[in-house]
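Quick one:
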Amino acid sequence: MEDTKVQEQSLTSQSISILFAKLVSFVLSVLLPLLVVRFMTPHEVGVYRQVFLVSNYLVDILPLGLSMSAYYFLNRENQKERSLSILNILIFNFILGGLACLSLVLYPGILISLFQNDEMISYAAPLGILIWLRIFGGFLEIVALANREAKTASVMIILMQMIYMALMVGAILVYNSVNSLIVAALIHSVIQTATLFLYINTRFPGFWKHFDLKFMRQQLTYALPFGLAALLYSSQTDVHNFFVGNKFSAADFAVYSIGCFQLPLIWVLYESVSAVVIPKMSELQANGEKRQMIALSVNAMLKLGLVYFPMFFFLMITAKDFIITLFTPTYVDSVPIFRINLILLPLMCIMVDPIGRAFAEVGSYLLKIRAVLFLLLSASLWLVIDDLNMFEVIGLVVMFIIVEKALTVWKCLKLLEVSRADIGLLKDTLVAFCTAGAAALPLLFIYLVLHDLLVEIYLKVGEYILSFLGISREVLLFEGLLLLGTMMVVYLIFYGLLLERTGLIDAEAKNKMLFRIRRLLQPKTVK
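Output:
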């Protein structure tokens, strides 16, 4: 029993460490889209998003899951296999990234055919190099986490994000062009790659001295089903962007992509929890402890739900002010797209990826269903894209993602031998969802009744304060932040009061939270 508590504390400690690093990254990353929409025209924003759509998509899919296999092989005791797995990943990523770069350099017309935009050809070569470096250097965060060095990974996450944001913000403020943003990202990738080599050489000295083709096959056999499934998932979730980018103008694409915007905080929390749950799930599966796997999944679902559910209801109500505040009134047409996309937020608390990676057969299953769904979605978009507006496109995409999620959950339930009697385990998660929904009702009433009055008041306050500071622009940003902040405080008060009555947060957790708050508020004494 004591060992279990120690493991839980260790997992919690790692999660908090990673979460803190991701939160810092989140705070920094929020600044970038705010600056882009304010210093670039909608057309330039659309081109920028198209260029980085290609980059992000290829960086996600081309490693084919081999980088993620580090979570599996670095938790083995055989030191030789640990070093071999690192070498295999580096070789594989170098080759795949190089092929992507070569393709864009030799055939830049690919970008024109994707987006029907002739100016894209000028970005082909630098984009190819950026993709190559990002695929190779992007292994840095994964290897540190897989090696169970959460604190080291946290430091590197924060440091790399700070460097990235400094370079990207500088590029926007000084040069204000898509080319400058690509160059800034290139410089960051070079620094990240150098840091990767430094880390690996200190943790796995001499890793490059031996290569085992048989072990490479073994690693690929494990990773490729998951990698191909991830490729299909990324294709399924991104294919609509390519269809929209091809049919509509760059300015329209900017509106659509902003509507598909997801707060980095959503992924910050998910990745932080997932990074420590995946190794634990693999350990429990190896020991045949399926009941503990179920308990861990339900616990993770509740923890995520306590954040995702209130975020979902709050953003649904305040969506228009949220989009206008962050992206200016130019992108108000993004609001309905944003609301449809938000439907997926509550479903993200269902963490199937850690379970899937614990069972090898899930990889082949995901590969099959994602292949079918990707083909169906692509065929649907191909046939009806000319008759759909952007709002209808995102609705179709969300429907397919929900179907894929349902099929994956069904497979995981079968593997874990979940019975109908286990439905009761979801009671707390359902209570959390209802609590978040109930807290949204008074917020909705207050929002509808007082919205216009608060906007008027905050505009005057913003004008006065900004003029006092000698700033003449961004009154709407200031007003929007005040309004959203007010609404958030109102919602959190109702949510906190209702949550207190549910008992979902135990006394020990509340005491720890209060203790940390008191420490933050306690004045420092100088000795």
